[in-house]
Design a protein that fits this description.
The protein is an all-alpha fold and 327 residues long. It has eleven helices and no strands. The radius of gyration is 27 Å and the shape is globular. The termini are far apart.
Length: 327
């Protein structure tokens, strides 16, 4: 009769070690990554963050607060800004999700703050403080955020000077570089400067047409003063951009055809508005075409320049954009 030998049962420590090993193999094979706020587990790596994730999350939180603040306000400009901020929120959330940020992290909202006009001005301008932080963004996102900062700067200037009648000359902003400061020389990849110069010359030509066919002195509408102010500003921008691009720039046209008949005050204003909107679109194409290196050097200049254009569009009665020049 054969004797039976008892098989020793595994101890608790051995079972724990074995299960840990299996878990490690399974999670490694499935590509499991812990969220950054999850507790540590053996052999399970944490989720890598997307470039500039914290900066983008902060910008999203500010945008959520602006959606609430502008939606609660009663003015027409504030209501228009609310629509822009909703669009910005959607784009920022999508960018974070595409960057692999978990929905739970992206979904963290911001508490709305007070909605008095002075607070709104500060809230709109806040995104342009400490612009060096945006260097952490990828160049692709950087191009988008450059235009978002322009919107925020323009909004702060419009709200600060009075939403009902914004001045054609923007009020001083809180950024380190004003819109009248010279921009750095264009990089070889800044091919969009030529298109911008062409659009600006076209707009200047149309302003001259409006001046020639409009009142020669101030009347109750102030049309003559407005056109003179816009012409002066636009000519300064053209001179600056001509200096930046140098001999490689496009030749100035002898004449520019009118897009529609110009016969009264409404059509004169529409013509000039069309021209300045064309400058905005050309500036957006310039931003889209910036090289990666140029994006890194653009934070102190491009948002201010583009905000300047956006304020003039508003002054003429044109619609503001969530991402000026891109949308």
């Amino acid at each position: 009769m054969s004797s039976l030998h008892a098989v020793p049962s595994p101890g608790r420590r051995a079972v724990t070690l074995a299960l840990t090993g299996v878990l490690a193999l399974l999670t490694a094979g499935c590509g499991v990554r812990l969220q950054e706020d999850a507790p540590d587990l053996p052999l399970v790596p944490r989720r890598p963050k997307m470039p500039g994730e914290e900066v983008l999350l902060g910008l999203l939180g500010d945008t959520v607060g602006l959606v609430a603040a502008t939606s609660a306000a009663s003015g027409e400009v504030e209501k228009a800004l609310a629509d822009l901020h909703v669009a910005q929120e959607r784009v920022l959330r999508d960018a974070l999700r595409r960057g692999g940020v978990p929905s739970a992290v992206v979904g963290a909202g911001a508490s709305p703050g007070p909605t008095n006009p002075a607070t709104l001005v500060a809230m709109e301008a806040a995104a342009s403080h400490d612009r060096g932080r945006y260097a952490a963004l990828s160049p692709e996102l950087g191009r988008v955020v450059l235009t978002l900062l322009a919107q925020r700067l323009a909004a702060s200037q419009i709200l600060g000077t009075g939403a009902a009648a914004a001045s054609p000359t923007p009020s001083p902003n809180t950024s380190t570089t004003g819109s009248t400061s010279p921009s750095p020389p264009p990089s070889p990849a800044d091919a969009g400067l030529g298109g911008l110069l062409t659009a600006a010359r076209e707009a200047a030509n149309w302003v001259e047409v409006a001046q020639a066919r409009g009142p020669k002195k101030d009347d109750t509408t102030g049309e003559a003063a407005l056109m003179t102010s816009i012409s002066t500003w636009l000519r300064k921008r053209i001179t600056l951009w001509e200096g930046e691009i140098g001999a490689d720039g496009p030749e100035a046209p002898v004449a520019v055809p009118l897009p529609f008949p110009v016969e009264d005050a409404a059509s004169r204003t529409a013509l000039v508005t069309r021209g300045i909107e064309g400058v905005r679109a050309a500036y957006g194409r310039r931003v889209e075409g910036l090289s990666d290196a140029a994006v890194a050097d653009a934070w102190d200049t491009i948002p201010d320049d583009l905000a300047d254009i956006e304020v003039h569009v508003h002054t003429l009665g044109g619609p503001l954009q969530a991402f000026p020049g891109l949308s």
